[in-house]
Amino acid sequence: MIRNARKLMVCAMLVVLAACTHAGDVAPQPATGKRIALTFDDAPRGPGAFLSEDERTSMLIANLSEAGVDQAAFFVNPGHIKSADDERRISAYVDAGHVLANHTATHPRLSQTDVEAYVADIDAAAEWLNAQDGNRPWFRYPYLDEGRADKAKRDAIRDALAERDLVNGYVTIDASDWFYEGAATTAKAEGKAIDLDAFRDLYVEAHVEAAEFYDQLARQVIGRSPAHVMLLHETDIAALWIGDLIDALRARGWTIISADEAFTDPFGAYAKSFDTPSAQGTLTEMVAWEAGAPAPRWYRGNDTKLAQEWFDRRVLGQEPAKND
């Protein structure tokens, strides 16, 4: 009975969320209704596969500007700031019109960290961020790990965020860009030839495919396209090819919006209350799971085994190993 009541409540909530599109509670949408904000996790990152830290920051700022993106959001780990140069690079994002938000100080996994230590890590990040221009009251869980199967831990952090006037800086679209950066770093260290044109095409195609998948899933579950939030990381490959990705998204009818706009969408209310067997992943997946949508509720490229096969074949020119 409790489970059935919960499902009825979820369905009612989804109806309300869908109705908000027609109630004037969100900004008017373009004809396709596909809107997306760009967010970058883990700033500041160390050296990547292709660029120095300064080159990466300068190129990312320049390519976002050239593409006409006025505001992206950078989710910061202040505990990883090791020098004045790290601070200068983060300030450069703000000077260019972008905004900052909390990603904990040191990037722990909630499912592997006790609540007290995790909250202390949030507070340590907030102490640094609250002194910065461009700070926003958004918190993003490292690894998108909201406690996994530990619902008591999940709820404890929800309460801690509410006490601090922080809201969940959720994502709705994820294509595991972090994996490709790591695969390139490994390949380069092993002296393998990397086809950069093929790598660019794979990066762009994976993210556009993920955007289309999660948008269709959202439409099936709530009856409309929410303002989406794409998960990216402050990587070399983002700096190199963010302009190509933006062009490809626009070619498929997407409008790039600010994170400020995206996080006002009524869809975000669900981030405070979803109840699934395991709390980790995109908000789109969580909403679909609770509503009873069948698997797969996640983009196929988030399977890193498959992503490795794509990378090996397309970027390194290798055929995947055959299973004996």
Topology of helices and strands:
Layout: H1 2-20, E1 35-43, H2 53-66, E2 73-76, H3 84-95, E3 99-102, H4 115-129, E4 135-139, E5 145-148, H5 151-163, E6 167-168, E7 173-174, H6 177-189, H7 196-222, E8 227-233, H8 236-251, E9 255-257, H9 259-262, E10 279-280, H10 283-290, H11 304-315
Parallel strand pairs: 1-2, 1-8, 1-9, 2-3, 3-4, 4-6, 7-8
Antiparallel strand pairs: 5-10
Helix pairs in contact: 2-3, 2-8, 7-8, 7-10, 7-11
Q: What level of helicity do the residues show? A: 40-55%
Q: Mean pLDDT, as a whole number?
A: 91
Helix and strand run: HEHEHEHEEHEEHHEHEHEHH
**What is the makeup of the main sheet?**
8 strands, parallel
Query: Please, how many helices?
Result: 11
Please provide the count of β strands. Answer: 10
Account of the 3D structure:
By secondary structure, this protein is of the alpha/beta class. The chain is 47% helix and 13% strand. It is built from 11 helices and 10 strands. The protein has helices at 2-20, 53-66, 84-95, 115-129, 151-163, 177-189, 196-222, 236-251, 259-262, 283-290, 304-315, and strands spanning 35-43, 73-76, 99-102, 135-139, 145-148, 167-168, 173-174, 227-233, 255-257, 279-280. α2 runs parallel beside α8 (236-251), α7 packs across α8 and α7 (196-222) runs parallel beside α10 (283-290). It is globular and about 50 Å long. The relative contact order is 0.18. Mean pLDDT is 91; it is low at 1-31.
